Amino acid sequence: MKSGPIDPLVCPISYTVSIVRGKWQWVILWLLYTEKVQRYGELKKRLPTISHKMLSQQLSSLEQEELIHREEYPQIPPKVEYSLTEKGKTMIPVLEIMAEWGRRYSSQA
User: Could you say which residues of the chain have pLDDT below 50?
Assistant: First the structure.
């Protein structure tokens, strides 16, 4: 095995981690997988410790990476819904493996 710096363009794990960054994005993807379509307020209720600014940033980043879809409805009050894109749905096997690992080892923490 070679040693030295890891090139994120070559290392698939580094690339994946560069696309889905931090704990919140993984949790948001999981919520959209398990709950299907969620409004901003619903996500905020499910993630009470995340700030509004952080939630907005995380949703925007996931949207830019084309992992989630943002549907805005022209009404008052404004209505915005988030869901997984087809690309986002390809993360489901990874999320399921992470969830299984967490269920198995979280009781040991």
Answer: none
